[in-house]
């Protein structure tokens, strides 16, 4: 939108480089899931089209790796995660393990158990894509729900260890 306003202010004519993708272009981009992250990272017309096609959509079962422990603010849990761009399972697995920085922020509300996710845990979530920056690359997801199967079990407190049993003092005989 900012780009559109800047271009509009600089000339009364539409710039030759400005185009608005049609419904067919948006549908094609939406269906090109293998090119989702690469197109957004690259930017340009393909990135703009991909963003227009996917912004505000809910995506199911997005597989990620937590890059840090969750940040809990009230009932909202925010987790920085990494999602590989490779589509091949082996390449994606290697990319996921080699990652050192996050490329997504997932905001989870109403699911307090998700706070048990820890750095390096892998999990799936369903969420709505709401934000995007190209450099540094970061996608923001809202209204996310973590797949319950991927939330670590609650750790139970270890029972308190008891020391050796204390013996009652020996009874003294009367008159001692």
Descriptors for this entry?
single chain; OB fold (Dihydrolipoamide Acetyltransferase, E2P); 26% helix
Structural notes for this entry:
This protein has 176 residues and is α+β, with helices and mostly antiparallel strands. It has two domains: 1-54, no CATH class; 58-151, Nucleic acid-binding proteins (OB fold (Dihydrolipoamide Acetyltransferase, E2P)). The protein is 26% helix and 26% strand. The protein has helices at residues 2-10, 23-31, 36-42, 44-54, 89-98, and strands spanning 58-66, 71-73, 76-82, 104-109, 122-133, 138-146. Helix 2 packs across helix 4 (44-54) and helix 3 (36-42) packs across helix 4. The longest helix has 11 residues, at 44-54. The chain is elongated and about 110 Å long. It starts with a helix and ends in a 30-residue tail after the last strand.
> Could you give a short account of the major beta sheet?
5 strands, mixed, barrel
Order of helices and strands: HHHHEEEHEEE
Structurally, the number of domains stands at 2
Would you report the number of β strands?
6
Measured between the Cα atoms of the first and last residue, the distance is 97 Å
- Into which percent range does the helicity of residues fall? 25-40%
Apparent shape: elongated
What structural class should be given to the helix and strand makeup? alpha+beta
Annotated CATH architecture of the largest domain: Beta Barrel
Percent of residues in beta strands: 25-35%
Query: CATH-wise, what's the superfamily of the largest domain?
Result: Nucleic acid-binding proteins
